[in-house]
Amino acid sequence: MAPMSSDAPRHDELPAPYGSGSAPAPRTGRTRIHHLAQAKERGERFAMLTAYDQYTARIFDEAGIEVLLVGDSAANNVYGYETSLPVTVDELIPLARAVAVSAPHALVVADVPFGSYEASPAQAVATGVRFLKEGLAHAVKLEGGAYYADTVRAMVQAGIPVMAHIGFTPQSEHALGGYRVQGRGDAAARLIEDARALEAAGAFCVLMEMVPADAAAAVDAAVTVPTIGIGAGSATTGQVLVWQDMAGLRGGPGTRIAKFVKQYADLRGTLLEAARAYREDVRSGSFPGPEHSF
Ligand SMILES: Nc1nc(=O)c2c([nH]1)NC[C@@H]1CN(c3ccc(C(=O)N[C@@H](CCC(=O)O)C(=O)O)cc3)CN21
Ligand SMILES: CC(C)C(=O)C(=O)O
Ligand SMILES: [Mg+2]
């Protein structure tokens, strides 16, 4: 018999079996979710950003961002579609996997996209399973109110942690009549009902998009689970932004920046300058120089 090939892994170089030895146990999804619940109990806030790839996930995780969202906003911010409606599960899963394998601390949540969960609780469970199994996400986020309580219950029973998303739900923009603040006046009571029904169904968190600050505060007070806001004032437990908005990558001629966005950097300007300088160096012959050559 031939001797064992020298590049086969030697037993003493293999990692210790899972759960043995002194290596710290990996942070499970449950631990990461619990961290958010604790923040609300302690009156602390936490931050969430979208991420769609390896480097942003690593950087945001290192910065301590508690939650990374592989949003269906990848439709706009990765794939270049006008709305979030066309993006598919097959387009989001590889992005979720890239983020999940790059974030040792953050909770990784993936959006279930339009068309992948509405038909039945069974469809939603099947889609959620794909995001956890193939996308390696810890949890999924689902747009919709009390109407989806049975769907959320079925997913949670299947072992899929669910974040609820109420208020302005971009997947329903055609039904809602565009990008509009939701829950003004009497509609605030409806938001509270939705949040309570979704919490009762087992959602671990309720995200609110574009709702008046006082309505968001009332929702946060009405549920035990943590809440997250985007255009929802400052009384929520957490806050989320799309990372390209937060870092000023999006912008430039003809772009509309929503009122709820604060730009913390000018990545578009930085990248534009770098690309122009690189092009000039290539054209002038100053790059590559001898130090870059073999
Ligand atoms: N880059 C990016 N940022 C987002 O926040 C985002 C996406 N993409 N894609 C998916 C959805 C779509 N979202 C949007 C898009 C536009 C507005 C917007 O134009 N809001 C206006 C109108 C408010 C009003 O009329 O009441 C605003 O000024 O905030 C809001 C949310 C949020 N999501
Ligand atoms: C804006 C956030 C909440 C979202 O759902 C997304 O990025 O898809
Ligand atoms: Mg979304």
Account of the protein in words:
This protein has 294 residues and is an alpha/beta fold. The protein has two domains: 26-263, TIM Barrel, CATH 3.20.20; 267-294. The chain is built from eleven helices and eight strands. The protein has helices spanning 29-42, 54-62, 74-77, 89-100, 121-133, 149-157, 173-176, 187-200, 213-222, 243-246, 267-284, and strands at residues 46-50, 67-70, 107-111, 139-143, 162-167, 205-209, 227-230, 238-241. The longest helix has 18 residues, at 267-284. The model is unreliable at 1-6 (pLDDT under 50). The structure holds 5,10-methenyl-6,7,8-trihydrofolic acid, 3-methyl-2-oxobutanoic acid and magnesium ion (MG). Residues 73, 76-77, 84, 170, 179-181, 210, 242, 244-245, 250, 256, 258-260 line the site of 5,10-methenyl-6,7,8-trihydrofolic acid.
